[in-house]
Protein 1
Amino acid sequence: MWISGDDHSHDQPGAPLVRWSTNSEIVAMDGVNLATSTAAPNVGNLSVTKSSRVHIGPKFVSVTQNLQNTEVVKGRCLGLELVSSKRARRLRCSVAVFVCWALLVACGLAIYLICVALPRQQTRLNIGLKEPWYLRRGDWQAMPPYEIEFLKLPVSYVIIGHAASNYCNQLYPCIEQMLVIQEAFLRRGMGDIGPNFLVGGNGYVFEGRGANVFGAMVSSWNDKSITIMFMGNYVLDMPDQAQFDHINVLLDVLVKEQVLRSDYTLYGQCQVQPDTCAPGHHITERMKNFPHWKPHNISGCIS
């Protein structure tokens, strides 16, 4: 091989034939063009005037590229470091433990609020009395109450009164009378029928406001008593024994359901509201039919 300004050839047995020239753009070997070659430009003189952005000569740019394993990237997206130091792993374990405890505390607080702290939705108590002579509100087609307030149970008193209305001793006439009584209480702005229970002739017992609801029969006693009203005017009408017997069954059930205290006291309305005739002297004379009756203030009852 040699360098010269003119083309030369090197002929030697067994050696490839190479032609090369400084002025040529093609390198030939054995008659085959292999590559192109361009002579580097030669700058003899350069004049720069009033320019600050001129670079002469090669310019090197440093490029840094980090390649990471795909699994590491996926792990970071999921909040996990698959390849990490021991210190970083300990930190993440601490964070995970803290999050778990926070979730447990939050769940416990939610359960407490739902089951204990928040007031439960109360409903009218079903005392479970299944007798043919006992009718719940739906049985006598009671109108929905305008308002409802619940008693704090158990209560200590039972008050007996009368409706001073028409007497009934058959089922359907008594149902009609129940609707009349409820309508009268609603017109007076009571929000519902007044007493907790009502009793017709032949011992028909009707659910009025219900066992655990504030009654509206005797002011200052409604929040601490169960009120029971005889349907009829017992200044004139005569009660029958079935009425007393079925009321006693009802009272026993109320004690069992913890609506009444076991040592409750029973009064006639005139005993706690003097100078009134309710429940009527025909009932007052037979109050001994109730085992828990106390004869206090009986002199205040008008005959």
Note: Residues 31 and 171 are 129 Å apart (CA to CA).
Protein 2
Amino acid sequence: MKNFCESFLCSSKELKSVRNLVTVAMLTTIGIVINLFTIPITPVMRISLGFLATSMIGMLFGPIVAGMCGGMSDIINYLIIPNGPYFPGFTISGILAGILYGIILYNKKITLARCIIAIIIETVAIDIFLNTFWLSILYGKGFTALIPLRAFKDIIMIPIKVFIMYFLLRLAVLHQKNYRQQ
């Protein structure tokens, strides 16, 4: 429990450095740009790789910063390309995803198992259940009617997300080590 609380405390201090602030801003911008290239499948289903920037921020700067960036990314994405009415539930989902990635990845060794756990929890709790709940509220469709198709798509995406996330985060760790040695 102590490490859990310490990760939030350390994360809240990450933005005191201008260098960190600029890095977070750049990663958030990259996430926003990645989200612009979503693949719409149906009006209530899209494929996106925007989670990559949020997971990177969570790994580097912790749950507080990643949660803030997840929420800001959702709002800015809506302002740039509004796909339907604004709904604050999706902002909450973005915040929770950032916090989740920060809790699982911040100041920890990046392993395949850790990436699998992060993606499975985020996919099941946020993508399948919470976002489907928001969509059922927003569009007035039954939760149980939306779940099967969304769950099918999200479950198929799990190995793809894990592979891309693990590869990208490992590259970031290697780059970070080389950068600190210079």
Note: The CA atoms of residues 116 and 162 lie 6 Å apart.
Protein 3
Amino acid sequence: MTKTQIWVAAFLGLFIILFGISRISNNNEPASSASMNGQMESIQPADKEVSVTTLIKNNGCTSCHGSDLKGTNLAPSLVNVKENWKRDELIAYLRNPSSFMDSERFARFRQQYSSVVMPPFNNLDIKDLGKIADYLMKL
């Protein structure tokens, strides 16, 4: 065997070993995927009950609206949303925020918070969106 063949065989063997180790270790990690706005979202199994605060954190709400949801320079406060929303409207907004952008209220928000766009959460289960809406209505 030439030196080149030895090096190729060594790298191939190392690759196979590392691939096997990564396959074994990936079975123990929770599944997650990046959302459109670059934040991480956990994919929760349907049979597990998840707290609303976990849903809010995992879906990136606190990264724009603040850890206390009282707003930041990126997004408005979510306190007292019940003054402007009914539960069903809020759920519809969370699923597809762009469908509400023609209203006067959102024109004002676009001017104030022009650097960030509210991402749609149509990938979340409607029950989870209902939990989030119920929680926000109580703030």
Note: Strands lie at 32-34, 40-42.
